[in-house]
Structures are given as structure tokens and as C-alpha cells.
Specification:
Pfam family, one: Zn_ribbon_LapB
Shape: elongated
Oligomer: single chain
CATH superfamily of the largest domain: P-loop containing nucleotide triphosphate hydrolases
InterPro entries: AAA+_ATPase, DNA_repair_RadA, P-loop_NTPase, RecA_ATP-bd, Ribosomal_Su5_D2-typ_SF, Ribsml_uS5_D2-typ_fold_subgr, Rubredoxin_2
Strand content: 15-25%
Helix content: 10-25%
Family: Belongs to the RecA family. RadA subfamily.
Keywords: ATP-binding, DNA damage, DNA repair, DNA-binding, Hydrolase, Metal-binding, Nucleotide-binding, Stress response, Zinc, Zinc-finger
Strand order of the largest sheet: 6-5-7-8-4-9-10-11-12
CATH topology of the largest domain: Rossmann fold
Structural class: alpha/beta
Number of domains: 3
Number of strands: 21
Protein name: DNA repair protein RadA
Amino acid sequence: MAKSKTTPKFECTECGWQTVKWVGRCPECQAWGSVEEKGQVTARTTAARSAAAPAKTIADVDSSVAEFRATGIGELDRVLGGGLVPGAVILMAGEPGVGKSTLLLQAASAVARTHPEQPVLYLTGEESAAQVKKRAERIDSLADKLYLAAESDLGQALAQIEEVAPQLTIMDSVQTLSSAEVDGAAGGVTQIREVTAAMIEAAKRRNMTTILVGHVTKDGNIAGPRMLEHLVDVVCQFEGDRHSRLRLLRAVKNRYGPTDDVGCFDLGEDGLTSLSDPSGLFVSAMTERVPGTCITITLEGRRPLTAEVQALVAESQASQPRRAVSGLDSPRVSMLLAVLQRRAKLTALMKSEAYVATVGGVKITEPAADLSIALAVASAALEKPLPNRFLAFGEVGLAGEVRPVSGLQRRLQEAARLGFTHAIVPKNTTDNAVPEGMTVREVGSLPEALALLFKD
């Protein structure tokens, strides 16, 4: 007998996978709680008799309504591409306690002061209005045209928008807002989708900039459906270590500007302060030459940042010497230690403990810092300091070769601006890129770089 074909009744809202029975986790995209029952489609949408807004030629479209409006916070404007765009929807995500609410409260106050012709609305679902005002008083973010409202219902939030008619609306956070017309608890996939769609519709209809605060999961991903990131215009990640004052703002997605820039902030008791030149935070203040320290320049997007790598090598009586790493990729540091042992003949590292860390809590992940890490470890092992005003950058391979890195000219220009006079870089990369007053030596391998610095 021919087998009857079963029609799938459930579908994953993340990837579209279909099944005949409900499961808690989608086996295709591994998302939890995304499998929902498919609705019965009984009719198709038909075309309207006439378009409400007739199409125009691209030359006749007025683009002045979508111009950037500066917020008054330089680092925020840098990441957004120039400021806030009317009608844009921005998603701001970050770990708890990193400073998202503080940054947005300062931005709301700055916009209300800079553009007093229209009010700014701050909707909070996590705190009361009195709590938000207390924080605003502490960070000096009070403004006459800044309105506060504690709402957790989507209908009430939309009513507040209709009454205030703001130029900028901040919703803190999208996971705390829920609609009474949709099933599910606040923060669920269905509720987040409904809340986001309603806020986007209000933003586009009123030509109002909207910033949505989003929570993150324990893996660092934005909580909720992946569709949330596709619906909004800009997705920003606010990062920082709880034990450090430095905060970094990145644009993961930006329809109006670049996504390869980063904003730097200093978190203090008075709020967040923009850092136009944060290089001094990542370099120690010691003036005496000490073995085991090397300066490098990393690229955060298009922005060069100076960082210092410190290493300490000590004798060990244990059969397996300890390796401790802070602020760097631990497997990569282990690889560089092995390269130093075999290619540079530093066999003393086999029976020595090695401690490698960065200054100021900065995290370095790009391979361009390999050469500076290796030189810092070699300097500590040989107990010989590196020269003054010296830096190095380059990727080190398993064969001991030093490979080229991107953005060499920007790195050298930043080094010359900060007063560095000597640098070691990969071979065949400095054509017309050496700033005046700097001495740059090219090396093709790690042993060649060690021979230049430690001739004996």
C-alpha cells in the first residue's frame, strides 16, 4: 500500500525547519523555544486599488530628512557614522552592568540639550522613573526636554510616544516590554518579535529615531530571535571588563555608516567619558627599562591603539612548568613559546614558568601582536631589556617566519605621533610608509629579529 504523506504542523521561527511534532530545540539551528505551530492560511493578500504613496524616481526623493544629527557624544557619533538618523532603529546590546543604560541616558540628555525643539522620551521597563532620575542626577544628565516613563506594556508605551511626540525614543529594554494581545511571557520569541515590529512601525511612521536596549545570553549573543538583528538598522555591541574602566562600543551592523570603527569610553563615578586618545591607558607609566616589556600597536577596526605586553620567566622545579596568560589568546601564546624554543633555540623556556599579560586590561586577539609577545618573552628569558621608544608588530608562523600585517602605515603613523623612534616590522611592507624621524628595520624571521636586538 502507498504510504500517506504527513503535513508538517510545526516550524522553527529562526531557520524555517519544519516537523510534524513539537520539539523544544530546533535540530537545524540549535535554537531553544523557536519551534511553533503553523497557522492555517485561508486567504492571500490582494493588491490595493491604489498606492497610498506613489513611487518616485530616485532623483526626486528628498534625502535631507535622513541626515545625521549629532548626539553631542563624540565616540558614539563616530561609531554610528556621524550621529542619529531620523527614522532609524538602533539595537544596543551588552552584558549586565557594562554601562548601556548610563550611556543611553547621557545620550538622551545630550540630544535634548543640543536639539531642544523636540523632546526625548526614555522608556524604562527595568527601573522606576525615580531610580532613573537618581542616576541622571549623579551623572549630570538632567534636561528640560527629557521625559521619563516606566512602562512594561507595549500599548502604554506606544501611547506615551503619541502624547510626547519625541525626536528620540529609548526603550530599556526590549526584553521587558510585552503586548497583551500576544501570547507568551515578556522576553519570549513571540513577544520580542511583536514588540520590535511595533516599535519599528512607529519609528518609520513618525520619522523618529528609536534605540532598543537588548540583553545578551551567557554566550555573548543577543537574546531573542535572530530576526531581531535583521529588522533593525543598526546593531551595536557595548563591551568591557568589570575590573577595568575601559568600555568599547562597536557597530556590528550599520546601514548608514561603517562597521569597522570603535568608540572608547572611560567609566567613572560621573558616568562615561569619551576617550579620543585612549593609548595611554594600555601602557605602563614606568620610565626605567625593564626586561620582559614590549610595545605594539593593534587595530580596533580602523583605529590604532597602543598596547604593552609584559612577560615574566622564572625557573620552576615542577615537571610541568606553569603557563599563565591574561588579556591574550592562551593557545596562541603557547604556540609562540614553542616557536621560541625550537626556532630561536631558547631551550631554557622548557623548564621555566612563563607569565604573559597586557597592561590596563586590554584584550589583544589579532595576530599582529605575535612579534611583540615573542620579543617580550625572549627579553624576560635573557634578562635584557628592549630599547627605549621601541615597538614591534608582525604575525609569527610555526616555521618562525614573520608575516605581513594589515594597516602598516596607520600603525607607523600612530607610533610616530606618540614619539616612538624605532620599530621592527615584517619584510617588504614599508614601501613609502616610514614616517619622518623613525628608524624601521624589516625582518623575515623571529631569529633575525632576536639577532638585531640581542646581538650576542
